[in-house]
Amino acid sequence: MKVYLVSFGVGLLVGVVYSLVDVRSPAPPVIALIGLLGILLGEQIIPMGRQMIAGTSIRTAWQHMRCGQHVFGAMPGRHAERPASPTVAASREVRS
User: Fold this and answer.
1) Cα separations (Å) of 72 from 39, 75, 93, 96?
2) 39: left (phi > 0), else alpha (psi -120 to 50), else beta?
3) Which end of the chain is less crowded, N or C, counting CB atoms within 10 A of the terminal residue's CB?
4) Is 96 helix (H, G, I), strand (E, B) or coil?
5) Predicted TM-score of the model (pTM)
């Protein structure tokens, strides 16, 4: 969560600097950002639909296809994936 707050704070600071030097932000308008959200969600329809046709509930399909991570990115905290330990990675290399 700290990373998101820092990112927001830096963005806010840049916005203030843009305002002081009287420059328009190069950021896309809100309508474009909503379109991008639609694209992210739309990418999940077919894979989730296949899971649901196979008899999986919508919640289970969402989790199985890792839609949340795809749409929102890897969230910090207990739900974030932990990197493989060096010993596990080394044992995989030896077997190959």
Assistant:
1) 13, 7, 32, 34
2) alpha
3) C
4) coil
5) 0.47
Top mean-pLDDT range of 13-22, 38-47, 72-81: 13-22
- Name the one residue in this structure whose structure tokens are 């600097």: 17
Token pair, residue 59, equals: 């919640």
Q: What is the pLDDT of residues 78-96, one digit of tens each?
A: 555 555 555 555 555 555 4
Overall domain count for the chain: 1
Asked if residue 67 belongs to a domain, the reply is: yes
Residue 51 lies in a domain: yes
| Average pLDDT score over residue span 62-68 | 72
In our burial notation (b when 16+ CB lie closer than 10 A, e otherwise), range 45-77 reads: eeebeebeeeebeeeebbeebebeeeeeeeeee
The answer to whether residue 2 is domain-embedded is no
6: tokens are 């820092």
* 52 found inside a domain: yes
C-alpha 10: how far from chain center: 19
